[in-house]
Amino acid sequence: MAMVQRRLQIINPNFVSLAVALSLIISISSAKVFFEERFDDGWESRWVKSDWKKDENMAGEWNYTSGKWNGDPNDKGIQTSEDYRFYAISAEFPEFSNKDKTLVFQFTVKHEQKLDCGGGYMKLLSGEVDQKKFGGDTPYSIMFGPDICGYSTKKVHAILTYNDTNHLIKKEVPCETDQLSHVYTFVLRPDATYSILIDNVEKQSGSLYSDWDLLPPKKIKDPEAKKPEDWDDKEFIPDPEDKKPEGYDDIPKEIPDSDAKKPEDWDDEEDGEWTAPTIPNPEYKGEWKPKKIKNPNYKGKWKAPMIDNPDFKDDPDLYVFPNLKYVGVELWQVKSGTLFDNVLVSDDPEYAKKLAEETWGKQKDAEKAAFEEAEKNTEEETKDDAVDSDAEDGDSDDAENDDADDEFKPDSAEDDAHVEYY
Ligand SMILES: *[C@@H]1O[C@H](CO)[C@@H](O)[C@H](O)[C@H]1NC(C)=O
Ligand SMILES: *[C@@H]1O[C@H](CO)[C@@H](O)[C@H](O)[C@H]1NC(C)=O
């Protein structure tokens, strides 16, 4: 595989001054590409389709295509093509460790279906993997990319596996939700910082220490600490000056209803002596309580002091994945149509940025135009269908009115769907 592990070279330095060329060589020539897949001819020899879910007839087929709308019909990728199916495919690259290196994981993904629930993420795997058996249970090192489900989940996953446990990023990173191609980039640096980019724009960044719970916390509340006996944490106390008014307890809760009258047909002998029904007493104010005042001795809420966590042991290799060896897609899709392209595993964010510009960046405007054209055509088809079915009704009397109605039908149907979803 010539594309793997290739070193970039300045191809034509004649056009740039020597100084610029030198600085470019210094900044670019060290770029290492561990894996790059643009899904040109021959891609099938580099990727292994898993047999996962095949015997249950639940393994979906990949379509090698540029999709229904694109910026270049000759630039193909792989697209999920069957609804309600599992998808698993992977490619191997020469094993490497990202120790002392920046790790860049990037790919383009387009959800041509209006994705309402499904993933568009990829995985990096380590060690030895039986690619024919690659599936949902296969351990992975990094899972990264968009995930959409209903209105609540529209996020970029960044799951790191540490000590055999998958850890989700704690920060919310919204993903793109339209039907166009987007480039997702994950950058992990040897200083344990990371960045997440969408379409070459940084959307999130921070540290592995703070944004994932990979290690136990550095500081904990001192479990030995106790609240001092004389610690007054009552913010308000009953006012010692406040006294119960005299006669307060003599006010009855209920009083006889003075408006009630003995019924005319009341028979004292048969019905017993008549007494007026009772009603709540408007004078009654409930049990007396002294009013509250600010406690002059209030010391605030007691908090245990923080101490160094004895279980915390720093790991200077927190960011290191020592045996990265495969890239894969493993998905469940209710509605198919997700197209992957331009997969990159590298050590150079600048190289990744250039690749994104050369692929997604060059094509995005044409793709958007093609998408809008396709949308317009579907709208017209829907309209034509509506008029056709009208004609079939043979209802010529108020055909004009019907036409008007039908024009609004697609919209109102959509509105209904929205209401139901919420
Ligand atoms: C593959 O994608 C193309 C473009 O969207 C489409 O025309 C074709 O029907 C798809 N093939 C399959 C088998 O889904
Ligand atoms: C690794 O996981 C095991 C089992 O869950 C745990 O006992 C151990 O403390 C963990 N080590 C680190 C460094 O997190």
Automatic annotation (TrEMBL):
Residues 387-406 have a biased composition (Acidic residues). InterPro entries: Calret/calnex, Calret/calnex_CS, Calreticulin, Calreticulin/calnexin_P_dom_sf, ConA-like_dom_sf. It comes from the Eukaryota. Keywords: Calcium, Chaperone, Endoplasmic reticulum, Lectin, Metal-binding, Repeat, Signal, Zinc. The keyword Zinc applies. It holds the Pfam family Calreticulin. It is found in: Endoplasmic reticulum lumen. Transmembrane segments: none annotated. Residues 219-264, 358-386, 407-422 have a biased composition (Basic and acidic residues). Residues 219-290, 358-422 are annotated as: Disordered. PANTHER family: CALRETICULIN, CALRETICULIN AND CALNEXIN. Molecular calcium-binding chaperone promoting folding, oligomeric assembly and quality control in the ER via the calreticulin/calnexin cycle. This lectin may interact transiently with almost all of the monoglucosylated glycoproteins that are synthesized in the ER. Belongs to the calreticulin family. This is Calreticulin. It comes from Penstemon davidsonii.
